Amino acid sequence: MASYLGAFPFPSLAPAILTHEALLKVVTILTERYGAVIKKRGREIWLRELYRSLAVYDRGARASIEAQEEVLAPKKPPHTAAGSSQGFAIGAPEDDGEGDEQDDDDELVLAALDSMDAIEVFKHGEQSNVHHSIIPTDNFLKLIELLLLIAPIDAQESLSMFAKDLTDARVEELRQTANIVLSSFGVENNPGVTYRTFNAVISTCLPYLFDGLNPLFEHFLFAKDFDLSKKSPDAASSKLENHPVIPPPKPVANPEPVLSAAGEILNLAVLSQLSFFIKGNNLFRRLRPLYSGNKHGFSMGSFEKQVFNWRAPSILLVSGRLLPSTPSNGRERTLSDMLPPKRLPSSISDQATSSTLTFGAYVPTQWKNTAKSCFGDSSAMLFQLSPTHDIFSASAISTDYVYFNKQPTQPTGVGLGTPIPKQSSAYNPHSQSSLRLGPVSLHLDDALEFGIFTHLSEGGGSFHPSGLPFRRGQDWQDRFEIDSLEVWGCGGDEEAEAQRKEWAFQEREAEARRRVNLGTGDKDADRELLKMAGLIGGDRSGGSV
């Protein structure tokens, strides 16, 4: 990767020896300090250069992948011109042609060559075609493991802090999570990742995948013993002395841990996975455990008590085992009777070695009871963390993002993406024969015992369908028994203090209500209280009528 970027802007010279000049190019590109060279479409072209640095050229492997893409691609309407194959319908379609679009995508290369008066070199063989290349799966897996490891790193943090924690268990966690992330590229039946798939998955599901490279390569910019407060003996001019000197920041003696305490679902590897689509400054050193089903109890009351006073965004995580297609006991049969008779297939094949699923949601607002309408805003997000990494972003079509419903409001339970039925005077919640779940939705029943994730490819609800190329056009529904349920608060000390004060206030109110008890044995006090309530006195005996 670095040796390719070191040869920039001459790809034919790669792999390059990492001289000081070549290393400077690598650091400049990987820390995204290219603003002076590239004026527009910076992120897109930067991503293309990263792909080129990872890819190899294998026409045989590429041909087999393209053949599979043609089989999986949706059929085009008859009026579509032949010869303009779109492949997967990603948000920013890529043509196989190399004309004006290829020249535009190489703006970064052109700008660099123009500064060296070497445009003619580019026109005679220095163009590299991303459409004839793939990223080998094994190489990409190792890179994802590295990105998971360095995701929490800070520019001023020593790399040795991460090396000492690389136990066998930690390495295994990283490898398992990396395989899950890699599965979103559909590599099970392919020898590598094409640019079309790479661009689609990174853009929709892993927008912050490479953010860890920035602080990692910033370590090359400054020496460990570099001190701006020290002046060179031969440069002690009055002009320099007039400028303020800012010493480099000192390392923190006891840094705050990245994750205060691991949960049953959330560990350091999963936290890094979350940072690939939720900004790390909202996660690292800022997550606080609010609720755990196995600790606080699987009930709506426990969930409400632990979560509702958190006045900041939160993350819900749920994990469970896929239910069999035929109910095996009364509880599963009750769940099956609540759903429409036509059952969609599961997202896990029968040949899969594991039936464990993990889903989650980012809830941007404070939780509350929903009697008439859902809460949340367009920054809400549904996601799947295993066995495949996938993201379902909020849609503007509907605002039924998050609900917490108790009887008689339907659907009873906790979920996202399902609208609450309009209630009128003639509305009878018990008359509904089945749950009407949203096109892309997650629902947990009111006993927090079962979960249902539904995905309809046509969308039309509060969340967009999957943007993964190999999942395009697929409908499925995963019904699972909940094993673990967690809610984590995103925030700092201020949010935690506000929650603590709210809990203390509620405790005082509950204690005051408990003390209002007529059975204390003080008859005079009880009589005065009844008089104040107007129940006795003034020709009222307080007896039965």
TrEMBL record:
<dbReference type="Pfam" id="PF07534">
    <property type="entry name" value="TLD"/>
</dbReference>
<comment type="function">
    <text>May be involved in a process influencing telomere capping.</text>
</comment>
<dbReference type="GO" id="GO:0005634">
    <property type="term" value="C:nucleus"/>
</dbReference>
<keyword id="KW-0963">Cytoplasm</keyword>
<protein>
    <recommendedName>
        <fullName>Restriction of telomere capping protein 5</fullName>
    </recommendedName>
</protein>
<feature type="region of interest" description="Disordered">
    <location>
        <begin position="327"/>
        <end position="347"/>
    </location>
</feature>
<dbReference type="GO" id="GO:0005737">
    <property type="term" value="C:cytoplasm"/>
</dbReference>
<feature type="compositionally biased region" description="Acidic residues">
    <location>
        <begin position="93"/>
        <end position="104"/>
    </location>
</feature>
<feature type="domain" description="TLDc">
    <location>
        <begin position="264"/>
        <end position="491"/>
    </location>
</feature>
<feature type="region of interest" description="Disordered">
    <location>
        <begin position="72"/>
        <end position="104"/>
    </location>
</feature>
<dbReference type="InterPro" id="IPR006571">
    <property type="entry name" value="TLDc_dom"/>
</dbReference>
<comment type="similarity">
    <text>Belongs to the RTC5 family.</text>
</comment>
<dbReference type="GO" id="GO:0006979">
    <property type="term" value="P:response to oxidative stress"/>
</dbReference>
